[in-house]
Structure formats: structure tokens, C-alpha cells
UniProtKB/TrEMBL annotation:
A Pfam family this chain is assigned to: FecR_C
Segments forming domain Protein FecR C-terminal: 252-322
Location of the FecR protein domain: 119-206
GO molecular function, one term: sigma factor antagonist activity
Organism of origin: Bacteroides pyogenes
Lineage summary: Bacteria, Pseudomonadati, Bacteroidota, Bacteroidia, Bacteroidales
InterPro entries attached to this UniProt entry: FecR, FecR_C, Ferrdict_sens_TM
Keyword set, alphabetical order: Membrane, Transmembrane, Transmembrane helix
Protein's name according to its UniProt entry: DUF4974 domain-containing protein
Domain of life (superkingdom): Bacteria
Length: 323
């Protein structure tokens, strides 16, 4: 049985609030990619939601936020797509459901919420002038003003460029780890649908404490820490940090870059899973050179397929499989 339009709208709201289960996320992404109309609907709804998500201070602010949200939805040119929101009781139900989620998940304590929506990245400047680049589908929570401690919470993926301040330590909390920062640049990835959490240090130094086991590790530049959520185990690798952090830039430039490094960066850039487990080491070491601007991931993979021996396909869960 096909899901109704209101079912998909609820999934979209859950996605934007980072409150969606992996199976629901895959179902939503499959629906989004099923047609151009679905994709446009998703993008428009996400843009309106993002614009209305500025600062939460009390319930009145949330009610006002909801009013603005629905008013903007009504004013869009594609009114026929959003007519059910304005004309049916579903709007009221969706509003009440959304308020319950906000109240449970985000207490009204003057915290600011920033959301990077589907297929977009967002740069956030924190109160201490530190800079955060949020990848698509990520959520960052931080106080309006930092006091003696600078603490933020992340769901999803973000690159941090933290301003040095010896008197006020900076920390990032995810579902699995707490990262203590000493004025540095690093990447953190902790998505609900992924079996692992990872952090990659580009410059400086960070201390990482695993919440479940209490294990503490000190990381150095060009190290990657991978935490297996199921096994509660950690692994530290030596990597080229740029392969994991370049997604935040305006464009990507590859010059004699091994395909394996290209796949890693494409995965971050397009916020999509790319599996290359069955590829030969010879293929993964093949150097390629090109510049990535506004091309789709399909375009890039087709080009790579034409100049190398790789083949690729999409799985039912939208994972790209390289062979």
C-alpha cells in the first residue's frame, strides 16, 4: 500500500528534526528521488522549515514559528502541492505533533538550533567566533552565549574550526562521545543510521572520551578515530584529513588523486553512502584528475566509469556500489 501525502510530510518533518529512524530515512530518500516533483516538494518544504528555525525561547516562539511555517507554505507558487496543509485538519495534527517533539527533544532554554537540510551545507558562526560547517541532514545545538564553558551538541556531521581560548574549554557532545578541543580543526560524524561514529583531526589536538566505555584517547593531526556502536570498540588510523574535510568547500579539485580518496570525498560531498568493498586495490589506487562544481553524483560516476575500469549501481537503499 502506498503511503499518503501526509505520511511523507510527517517523515519530512522528522527528517528535518533529526528524529527519523534509518528505515524511514531510506523510505523518504527513495520517495524524494522517485520524481522531480517529489524532490521539488521536499526542497521547498525544507527551505521553509529552515528559514523558520532561528531561535527557540518559549512555547509562544514555537507557536509563532509554526504560524510562519504554514503561512510561507501557503504563499509558495506551487500552491496545489501544499493545499492540504492550509485546508485540512492535518495541519493542526502536524502542528501538535511537531510541538510535542520540540518540547521533548529541545527544552525551551534559549538555545539556538541550526539545521542543514537535504543536499545542502550550512556555515554557522558560534558566539565565540568559532566556525562550524554543517553537512546535509545535521543538527547543531549551542547556547546563545557561552559562559565559562563552550559546549555544543551535534547530530549528523560537521567540521569545526575552533577559536583558541585557554580560559574557556570547548567541547562537542554526540550520542557516543565527548570531544574536548584545544583550538583546532576537525571533523565529527555521528549519524543514527550509521553503525559507527568517527572523528578526523586536521590540525591541533583533541581528547575524545567514549560515553559507554569511558575510554579516553588523545588524537594527533591526520588521525581518524572510528567507534563501532554495536561492539563498543575503537580504532585509530593514519589518514589524509583533507580527504574527509574538503566537502565544506565551494568546489573540489582532484589532481592525480587515487579513486579510493575520491570515493571518500564524494560520499561526504553528496551525503550518500558509497561502498567499494569489492573493488581491487589496483582500481582503488588508480589516479584521476578533475574539478567538481555542480555536477550530480551520477554525472561524476559516469565520467569515472568512462575513463577507468569501474562499474557502479544503486542498491534499494540508495547506496552506491562500486565494482
Amino acid at each position: 500500500m502506498q503511503k499518503s501525502m501526509i505520511d511523507y510530510d510527517i517523515l519530512i518533518i522528522r527528517y528535518l528534526e533529526s528524529n527519523i529512524e534509518p528505515e524511514e530515512r531510506n523510505m523518504l530518500m527513495h520517495w524524494v528521488k522517485a520524481s522531480k516533483e517529489n524532490e521539488e516538494y521536499f526542497v521547498q518544504m525544507a527551505k521553509v522549515w529552515e528559514k523558520s528555525t532561528i531561535e527557540l525561547q518559549d512555547k509562544k516562539a514555537v507557536l509563532k514559528k509554526a504560524d510562519v511555517f504554514f503561512e510561507r507554505m501557503k504563499s509558495k507558487k506551487r500552491r496545489r502541492l501544499y493545499q492540504w496543509i492550509a485546508s485540512s485538519a492535518a495541519a493542526v495534527l502536524l502542528l501538535l505533533w511537531g510541538l510535542q517533539i520540540w518540547e521533548i527533544k529541545f527544552p525551551f532554554n534559549s538555545q539556538m538550533i541550526s539545521i542543514a537540510t537535504y543536499d545542502t551545507k550550512k556555515e554557522v558562526i558560534l558566539p565565540d567566533s568559532s566556525i562550524v560547517w554543517l553537512n546535509a541532514g545535521s543538527l547543531l545545538k549551542y547556547p546563545k552565549k557561552f559562559n565559562n564553558k563552550r559546549s555544543v551538541t551535534l547530530e549528523g556531521e560537521a567540521f569545526f574550526d575552533v577559536k583558541k581560548d585557554k580560559k574557556r574549554p570547548f567541547s562537542v557532545s554526540t550520542s557516543t562521545m565527548t570531544i574536548r578541543v584545544f583550538g583546532t580543526t576537525f571533523l565529527v560524524t555521528d549519524r543514527k543510521e550509521l553503525p559507527h561514529t568517527e572523528t578526523v583531526l586536521e590540525t591541533g589536538k583533541i581528547d575524545v572520551t567514549m560515553k559507554e566505555t569511558g575510554e579516553k584517547l588523545e588524537m594527533k593531526p591526520n588521525q581518524q578515530l572510528i567507534y563501532n556502536k554495536k561492539e563498543q570498540s575503537t580504532e585509530v588510523k593514519i589518514v589524509n584529513a583533507a580527504n574527509y574535510t574538503n566537502w565544506r568547500k565551494e568546489h573540489l579539485l582532484f589532481e592525480n588523486t587515487p579513486l579510493k580518496a575520491v570515493f571518500i570525498q564524494l560520499s561526504k560531498w553528496y551525503n550518500i553512502d558509497i561502498s567499494y568493498k569489492t573493488c581491487s586495490q589496483q582500481l582503488l589506487n588508480t589516479p584521476v584528475s578533475f574539478k567538481l562544481d555542480n555536477e550530480t553524483v551520477d554525472d561524476i560516476l559516469n565520467i569515472l566509469q568512462s575513463i577507468t575500469s569501474l562499474t557502479w549501481k544503486r542498491s534499494e537503499t540508495n547506496t552506491i556500489i562500486i565494482e
